[in-house]
Sequence to fold (1139 residues):
Amino acid sequence: MSLGERLNALGRLQRSRRFKVVASAVVLVLAAAAAVTVLYFAQDADPELRSAVEDAAAARVELREASEAAENRLTEEVRGLLDEYQRLEARVGALRLERLESGDSAVTPQTLDWLLPAIGVGAAGAIAAVWIGLSLTYLGVAFLALVVAAPLILLGPGTRGVGLLVAGMAPLVVLLLTLLEVARLALSPSYPLTAIAKNVLNEAVRMRISLVFIVVLLLLLAVIPLVLDEDQPLNYRVSQWVQYGGGLGFAVLALLTVFFSSASVAFEQRDKLIWQTVSKPVAAWQYIAGKWVGVMTLNLVLLSMTAGAIFIFTEYLRNQPARGEIAAFITERGYDTRVLPSLMTDDRRILENEVLVARRSVEPTMPTFAEAMDSEAFQEVLRSRVEARQANQSGLEITEAVREEIAREVYDEAWLTVLRAVPVGAGRRFVFEGLEEVAEGGGDERLTMRYRIQAGSNDPSAIYRLGFRINGTPWPQPSNDPNATAIAEPGVQQVALDAMQRMSVPARLVNDEGVLNVDISNIPPNRWTLVFEPGDLEILYPVGGYELNFAKAVAVMWVKLGFIAAIAIAASTFLSFPVAVLMAIVALFAAESAGFLSSSLGQFRALTDDEEIRPVRVVVRLIAMPIAWFFESYASTKPVERLTTGRVLTWGDFGSAVSWILVWTGVVLAAGVAIFRKRELATYSGS
Amino acid sequence: MNTSAASIPSDSPPAEKGEDAGVRSGSASPVVLARGLTKVFRDFWMRPRARAVDAVDFEINRGEIFGLLGPNGSGKSTTIKMTLGLLKKTSGRLAVFGKPPTDVSIKERIGYLPEESYLYRFLNARETLDYYAKLFRLSDRVRRKRIEELLEMVGLTAVQHRPVGEYSKGMQRRIGLAQALINDPEFLILDEPTTGLDPIGTRQVKDLIVELGRRGKTILLSSHQLSDVEDVVDRMVVLYGGKIRASGTCDTLLAETSRSVIETEALDEETIAELTAVLERRAKRLDRVSPARQRLEDLFVQLVEQARRDRLSNAGAAHGGATAAFLRREAEAASAGGGELIERLIGGRRADGGEEEGEEMPTEAGAEAAREDEGAAVIGGLMGGDGEEGEGEGRREAGGDVGEADAAPAGPDADMISSLLGGEGGEGGEGDEGGEGSEAGDGDEKRGDERR
Fold:
């Protein structure tokens, strides 16, 4: 019997009912034995250790309450409770160590609080693995990983990275196999659509064209953590991990979707496999939908695996020491910042408040076109522009329509830019509205103001002095926080050009109407007028947790992959494999760039200043505008970018994006069905 | 099974064809009806490139085995593909179960084995059948049962977990046949079903086809193996250049009325000389006397059966087992009532209380015994010793529903044969006249047994 046949036989064994029953019984017996053992040792827990653990828990609760009462400020009372808590924790640790060294039981009733449930969960998971039919597979993967990875890790630093890579891939493989099996079970019903979908899934894991991408994805997810620079701040490493893991993962899955979707339909026609399917009672829509559901199921499995890997490793990184910490959440001075968030280091604060969070962004309110038209300054500029146009084009009649068109040009090209500029020696007020929920929360909640200034040629060596007053209060102010950056001059910041800056702003500065007035001044001897481009000045505040945001982002990615799959499948109904792939890749590229295309088209005029028509540009606009419109819903939501910048993907954004993408997906699939129904499948024009 | 009585020239009016097409008395509308069916392939610019099927008229009636013959490029595969909806007709009319071929609902009742085995290489045999069974929405229990039976029937049980991509061509044909039967179809389309099979497999497929035909299945068989077609079909059409060149039953198409063939026991030289003298007196010529030869296929099957009995090993697919139970289900139901009589008449040996027909695919030993019985009956009839009764008995045991038919074959040579046998044929000859119609009607039944 060859190795493959033996593995197949083992696979059939682990799926047999008899094996499942026996294995479940074994797991239950082992779990019961473990629980009894733990309970037995717990009975021997000595009163001193038990008392010490209880005292430490009580001190922790008291410390947290005092910290909240002091609005997270480090008052004398809080400092005293913190010292007491640390002393009690140290005592518990010492007692446990003493018991272990003397061979006595270190298990306490408090330990049982988590140990017994852990045994239960472990047993339940093992039984689930048995009944899914993958128990031996898991053991095999774990054994292989141990055998290969352990020696590599232990051999030395030269092979340690490879060993960690192998070790990291093992749980990913286990997760992948589990999700695949669950997906197969879900597609078990005896119905054409599910049968075709399940067949697609089998094809994906058994055919080279898709296996290559799956292996690349696994490798990527295992390699990226190894290339993160440990000298970088923790928040930066987490952002990088989410960006690369999510972005590259999505790119690999998108390419997999294009190639595999096209192959699944095109090759069946080329190889005439489709004859035996359509000679069965399978409607055209069932065939196309089955293919799409199969690809979507595969994407769901792989995306879940990717998301799981990203999430788990993010949590792992989160529990690593940040800059200025000796251990996760423990500052160099020994403060536990989970209990006292106000003592967080900058690195930890950015990570917790600006990366692993869901924040809403508010940009400064700009006057609308109508409001601008009411402005005298605007009318002044408009008059001079109209005069200039008349001088250039003699005989031009300035009708209301022409005047409005010129006004729009002035508004789009110049006015908004002017309102975002701060001349040297002057100041400008930027009004941030819609902060009512922040005003209601109040307290010491932190907002973040992100800004980037451009001036002159953006000399990288130049340092500009900016003055800030927020609702009349100079900001930032010096603070008692020993970990905070020292403030030399209240209300003044010295910043580099073309570099993103951030400033923490307390919520109490927002007025009762939910408005934040930020006065920014360009302090001499700065040389140039500074400008805030659109998107370069915003207020961010937390509105939710990272976890839900992450789930929504993954869901949007999945829906986007569904759109790409629909294009590839529809193209393959009438095109050969290479042509269908080409078409789908072009569509993918167009979809990903549609945002850039839309914004560029606003500036891409087909008429010269002298109103002459530029034919090439007319043609380009005619092609580009429908593309930008068609893919707008796809491009408008960038889930990975939201995650890496800690921005919320609101339910409105989520619903809108998903709805529109699904609508267009349906349109594309319907077109594919219509084409497929017209096809004469027994004539094939490809090679 | 009733069959048509005469060949039908392709330019005959449709009405005559319809009358002569041998529609089973009391049968429903034909399974496939083609009138003026034409298919013209066009290029990208819609210019006509090839007229693959040209104004073809034919019908396939329920319960018959219909042969589609022709050389390469004659339009056979095109016709089949149009029947399945894989191609669209250019003009004419084509109906399957009274509906257009593209109607999804009729596919429930059709099984299709294409010319080549187009199977998913990454699936094993069980998964392949499971996939196709699900396309028919078969319940879990029915699906599992049928898969087991079909794998047993086609001899792939031992290798069911190997990917189909690793199968030999013959094994792939077997699994292809199995998937064509998974839904217990009413109408089975077999395009070159014996391609890639060894003689044993070929024999079993032919036996299966005949058995399915007996069970009331309608079968469309297209093949280059003319001997295979000749053995099993009720009617056939021969295509060339997209047109029907001939159609009818084997008997009507192949009968050579200008010659006669007589089979006897081994003859000595003296007897041969006497026969020659008799024929010369009748101004006839004896062209050839030679020892009877069995067919190479029969010899091959005998050798393999012997090897099997001797339990010699053979890698790869086992030879098939019994016909799947769900395919035999109709026979079992029929035999519970009045069908039992018909089965006895057809099965012959079952009347003796022997094994039930359909328990297993007919073996060579069983076929040999059947032929011996038939041979004895025919010779007995020719001898005319027992008169009409004995001759009638013999013909019924040969597998024909003879009805009122008497002994000797009808036709102008009956007297001659009788005189060859020493003048006893005169009595037998008088009794021969009435049975022509029904004998011709029973010819197919006999053919199925005799040529095995």
Summary: The first strand of chain B starts at residue 32 and ends at 42. The CA atoms of residues 153 and 323 of chain B lie 6 Å apart.
